[in-house]
């Protein structure tokens, strides 16, 4: 199953805030050959951004989203991999979904986890690219990235 074109367009334009201990990084897609800013994983491993919010691209009640996100975070913790709190959505903050920026999963495992929680797509962030990966097909889009820093927590 392929992601609807209009939904895919929104995912391609999404920004992600990753909450580190001392600051929050906003990751914004850039042209594919441009990366600017700080990449927080010192060994250069891929950071996958995964959420359990709004499965299937449908808006669900907040309590359902938070319950599902808690189950996702429990699963990430059970796998023994590192993660930072994150939030993805539109650049203006009108639509925001709590997420996790996860280090230590293979691409297949990250997509499977997204699929298990009803997600159309996840993000894969490396020192050289920002990729949008479908959880249900081979569809993907590759970009560069730019980070900006917000002092404190979001």
TrEMBL record:
It comes from the Bacteria. InterPro entries: DUF3293. This is DUF3293 domain-containing protein. The lineage of its organism: Bacteria, Bacillati, Actinomycetota, Actinomycetes, Streptosporangiales.
């Amino acid at each position: 199953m392929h992601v609807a074109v209009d939904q895919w367009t929104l995912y391609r334009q999404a920004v992600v805030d990753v909450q580190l201990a001392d600051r929050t990084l906003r990751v914004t897609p850039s042209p594919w050959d441009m990366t600017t800013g700080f990449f927080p994983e010192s060994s250069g491993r891929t950071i996958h951004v995964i959420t359990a919010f709004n499965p299937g691209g449908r808006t669900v009640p907040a309590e359902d989203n938070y319950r599902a996100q808690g189950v996702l975070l429990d699963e990430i913790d059970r796998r023994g991999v590192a993660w930072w709190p994150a939030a993805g959505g539109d650049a203006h903050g009108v639509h925001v979904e709590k997420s996790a920026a996860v280090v230590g999963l293979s691409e297949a495992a990250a997509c499977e986890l997204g699929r298990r929680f009803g997600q159309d797509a996840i993000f894969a962030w490396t020192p050289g690219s920002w990729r949008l990966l479908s959880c249900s097909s081979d569809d993907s889009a590759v970009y560069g990235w730019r980070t900006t820093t917000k002092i404190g927590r979001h």
